[in-house]
Amino acid sequence: GAGVSQSPSNKVTEKGKDVELRCDPISGHTALYWYRQSLGQGLEFLIYFQGNSAPDKSGLPSDRFSAERTGGSVSTLTIQRTQQEDSAVYLCASSSTSGGQSSYNEQFFGPGTRLTVL
Amino acid sequence: AQKITQTQPGMFVQEKEAVTLDCTYDTSDPSYGLFWYKQPSSGEMIFLIYQGSYDQQNATEGRYSLNFQKARKSANLVISASQLGDSAMYFCAMREIIRAGANSKLTFGKGITLSVRP
Predict the structure, then answer these.
(1) With b meaning 16 or more CB within 10 Å and e meaning fewer, what string describes B72-85?
(2) Which of B14, B46, B88, B110 could form a disulfide with A42 if both were Cys (CB 3.0 to 4.6 A apart)?
(3) What are A21-42's pLDDT values in tens digits?
(4) Are A92 and A105 within 8 A, CB to CB?
(5) Cα within 13 Å of Cα(A73), Cβ side
(6) Distance between alpha carbon A58 and the CA centroid of its chain, in Å?
């Protein structure tokens, strides 16, 4: 089946503009995550959705960042008044929720959106 | 708070030989899971292997095995019979296991670059 998809794949914007990044998770996956990867670095957690609610948004770096998820499916990450330090690859991941004792709910990642703020 | 440490500089290995990629972690969570992901130059994140903190045996998955030493808080990845296609960044990650089947964010290390020489 289809994996996690993200759009756009690349986004170049000017400092101060708002951007929206979209994530389509794997069908049926109840959990959705946003991460950010700066050049040559590891992934930094931003926000986690379970269904349409966000029980963990502790990684959002400032109030310029927000995210929503509708219908338990598509999610949009919005960055307002972008700054140059926002330049990074934004990765979305999804996982299922299983009641199985041995389940580890692997996270499946999308290809990412490369954001460049000039 | 969780922390993953990957301090090895770029690693080199001869094709067909084995290589160990180091990962140490720190957490106060009583139950947690450890993951290894591969990120080739294309940028996708590929799940490799999982180890639960209460698993009695070290995880194995094809050519990948995890040398889990709980008392030392280490979870090293061993790749046997290296192939040219193994050249990539490798990330160690962990997450809290609140209860069986529940989801939570991943905390990643900074990654290790592996280059396989022909």
Answers:
(1) eebbbbbbeebeee
(2) B110
(3) 999 999 999 999 999 999 878 8
(4) no
(5) 7
(6) 13
Residue whose entry in the numeric block shows the structure tokens 């000039």? A118
Q: Which residue in B7, B86, B106, B6 sits closest to A91, CA to CA? A: B106
Helix/strand/coil for B85: helix
What is the residue-wise DSSP string for B87-118? Answer: -EEEEEEEEE--STT-----EE---EEEEEE-
Measure Cα distances from B17 to B58, B79, B91 in Å. 21, 8, 20
Give per-residue pLDDT as tens, B18-62.
Answer: 999 999 999 988 889 999 999 999 988 999 999 999 988 999 999
Residue to substitute from A43, A60, A96, interface B, most B β-carbons within 10 A: A43
Contact A97 B101 (CB under 8 A): yes
